[in-house]
Design a protein that fits this description.
By secondary structure, the protein is an alpha+beta fold. It has 2 domains: 4-135, UDP-n-acetylglucosamine1-carboxyvinyl-transferase, Chain, CATH 3.65.10; 152-333, Enolpyruvate transferase domain (UDP-n-acetylglucosamine1-carboxyvinyl-transferase, Chain), CATH 3.65.10.10. It is built from 10 helices and 16 strands. The protein has helices spanning 4-14, 35-43, 79-88, 107-119, 152-164, 184-191, 226-234, 255-265, 295-305, 327-333, and strands spanning 20-23, 47-50, 59-62, 69-73, 96-100, 125-126, 132-135, 169-172, 194-198, 202-208, 216-218, 239-243, 269-272, 276-280, 288-290, 313-315. A 4-stranded mixed β-sheet has the order 4-5-7-6. The chain has a 4-stranded mixed β-sheet with strand order 11-12-14-13, covered by helices on one side. The chain is globular.
């Protein structure tokens, strides 16, 4: 209903089906840009358009196949566009060349996509930096077994909760040799003064040495970590500068505006420029907050309130079901006090 990744993965695939497909979703999904993907598909011979001619869902795709050939797409809007093309073009009638007109951001997600394709016997070649990707046509997917790893993007909130409260917690099924880019949260925690133990399939936060401290980080390739890093920065001493935040404005909510609004309500000294967020850590007080129907904003607020003075209320917390349905239950099992109404 509100999954941007799903609609961006499925749109190219529907071009391989017979007949007409219409893809839409909830209000949040209908604000997610799709125009770069539609233009790239048209370059490959697919007839597709936005139903309201504004580049946003609902999306209409006329099936019947993908011609193949050469197409161009921006790499700085969403890596999900490139992943969607990679899922579908192995079944194109001719070889496909995807050329990026900008530097690719969120590279680890495309790396994971290519790894999955290769596990299923699909060939794909990428030049260094992913500015050109070539996909041979007429390929067949082969069966393969997979072990589903724990998600570092979601686990980051539990690890951050332990760091904020100077507690100890162990999260299992987090692989040390993962391709997940959001494993970067471990490095961030360590730089901020958190003692982290990493095993082959688990991560354990052991506590914080002399309090959290501010950092300067570039999260251009890891935008899903930005809300949780703002939560950490709010309780850290000194200044934290988070770069690479521009694309947050086209997530489930305008995450930059949502972060400024909700963290401002908690008394956090926070500001934003075109592509960065700056936080001066200090005392955080309880407040009445909104999730903006955005799961990562909701979880970031919940983590931040754990060490806030006074009582907090988060409206719309149910949106966490999108990615981490048991988030509140897991926090409560670790000793946090939440009442869900």
């Amino acid at each position: 209903r509100d999954s941007g990744s799903t609609i961006r993965f499925i749109t190219p695939v529907t071009a391989l089906a017979d007949g007409i497909s219409i893809l839409t979703g909830g209000e949040s999904l209908r604000r997610r840009p799709m125009m770069p993907l539609l233009e790239a598909l048209r370059g490959l011979g697919v007839r597709c358009y936005s139903a309201r001619f504004d580049g946003y869902p609902p999306i209409v795709v006329f099936g019947g196949g993908i011609r193949g050939g050469e197409t161009w797409i921006r790499g700085d809007v969403s890596s999900q566009f490139i992943s969607g093309l990679l899922f579908a073009t192995p079944k194109a009638e001719g070889d496909t060349t995807i050329k990026l007109t900008t530097e690719l951001e969120s590279k680890p997600y495309v790396t994971m996509t290519m790894d999955t394709l290769r596990r299923h016997g699909v060939e794909v070649e990428a030049e260094e930096g992913y500015r050109t990707i070539r996909v041979p046509s007429g390929q067949c997917y082969k069966p393969a077994d997979h072990t589903i790893e724990g998600d570092y993007s979601s686990a980051a909130f539990i690890l951050a909760a332990a760091a904020v409260t100077n507690s100890r917690v162990r999260v299992e099924n987090l692989k040390v040799d993962t391709l997940q880019g959001d494993r970067l949260i471990l490095k961030i925690l360590k730089v901020m003064g958190v003692e982290v133990k990493v095993g082959s399939d688990y991560v354990e936060v052991l506590g914080v040495r002399d309090g959290l401290r501010g950092v300067e980080i570039d999260l251009r390739d890891n935008p899903d970590l930005i809300p949780v890093c703002v939560a950490l920065a709010s309780h850290a001493s000194g200044r934290t500068l988070i770069k690479g935040v521009r694309r947050l404005r086209i997530k489930e909510s305008d995450r930059v505006s949502s972060i400024l609004e909700e963290f401002g309500r908690m008394g956090v000294n926070i500001s934003a420029g075109r592509d960065e967020i700056e936080v001066q850590g200090g005392i955080v007080h309880g407040a009445e907050l909104s999730s903006h129907n955005d799961h990562r904003i909701a979880m970031a607020c919940a983590v931040t309130t754990l060490k806030a003075t006074g009582r907090s209320v988060i409206h719309g917390i149910e949106c966490i079901r999108k990615s981490y349905p048991r988030f509140i239950e897991d926090l409560k099992s670790l000793g946090a006090r939440f009442n869900v109404e």
